[in-house]
Specification:
Helix content is 65%, strand content 6%. It is mostly helical and 263 residues long. It has a two-stranded antiparallel sheet. α4 packs antiparallel against α5 (82-103), α6 runs antiparallel to α7 and α8 packs antiparallel against α10. The radius of gyration is 19 Å and the shape is globular.
């Protein structure tokens, strides 16, 4: 049995041809497309700084974990090692768990926890630790866990979409879901239709997934921040802004926080 550190020790191999440009990099485009994680991660940490000061400084951890995912994904695609695969998937798991802990509306907490966020955070941490250890014993556990979380997040977004009449929040939700759908389509197409893409010499769908999911990340953060504010920040108003300019046709969303003043 090959070492977990060994090149190509993972059973997962994406559609891109291996070692096409370098003897050290297994999947060139899939490796370097992760640079987008190192662009959007620090940028969102900077743009969301005023919000984090008002709501929770644990928001910074979300941005840091996003960059860690980019680092581990780069390592995985460079080596296609089993360790790289585990680190990549576990980092995603902890990012989602951290997001749950900060932004999950209390009305969606399991009934046996009531609406106590501290108890919910402990429950999420324990569950994530168990899933992390199980992933080393049964690597397929991660795939099921990540897919289950994704479905649950979509359910929450759908429920909150029905509840709100806020056009700004609805727009952010719609863009988030559309971007995620395009990203997921790229991921699935690379896995299931690889022979077709190889016939037309187009091996870049997984690297496109990296770029699209990186763009989805800011929209997802803003969506969860706006939903959370309806429950946890009644004394504040959140306004969606776009970097570098609100007037530009394309921009990176973030939230601006202002206090509600009673006259």
């Amino acid at each position: 049995m090959p070492s977990i550190f060994a090149y190509q020790s993972s059973e997962v191999d994406w559609c891109e041809s291996n070692f096409q440009y370098s003897e050290l990099v297994a999947e060139f485009y899939n490796t370097f497309s992760n640079v987008t994680f190192f662009i959007f991660g620090p940028l969102m940490m900077f743009l969301m700084h005023p919000y984090a000061q008002k709501r929770s400084r644990y928001v910074y951890i979300i941005c840091i974990l996003f960059m860690v995912i980019g680092l581990f994904s780069m390592y995985f695609h460079m080596t296609l090692s089993f360790l790289g695969q585990l680190l990549d998937e576990i980092a995603i798991l902890w990012l989602l768990a951290s997001s749950y802990s900060i932004w999950m509306p209390r009305c969606y907490f399991p009934t046996f926890l009531g609406e106590n966020r501290l108890h919910f955070i402990c429950f999420v941490i324990i569950t994530t630790v168990i899933s992390t250890f199980l992933s080393f014993l049964r690597p397929m556990i991660n795939a099921y866990a990540l897919n289950s979380i994704a479905v649950h997040i979509l359910y929450i977004v759908f429920q909150e979409y029905k509840k709100t009449s806020n056009k700004e929040l609805r727009h952010i939700m719609e863009v988030s879901v559309i971007l995620w759908a395009f990203a997921l389509t790229s991921w699935i197409s690379d896995r299931l239709l690889c022979s077709f893409w190889q016939q037309i010499n187009f091996f870049y769908l997984h690297s496109i997934w990296h770029v699209l999911i990186s763009i989805t990340f800011p929209y997802g953060m803003v969506t969860m921040a706006l939903v959370d504010a309806r429950y946890e920040m009644p004394g504040h108003t959140l306004k969606v802004r776009y970097w570098p300019r609100d007037t530009w046709p394309v921009g990176l969303p973030y939230v601006e926080v202002s206090d509600n003043k009673n006259c």
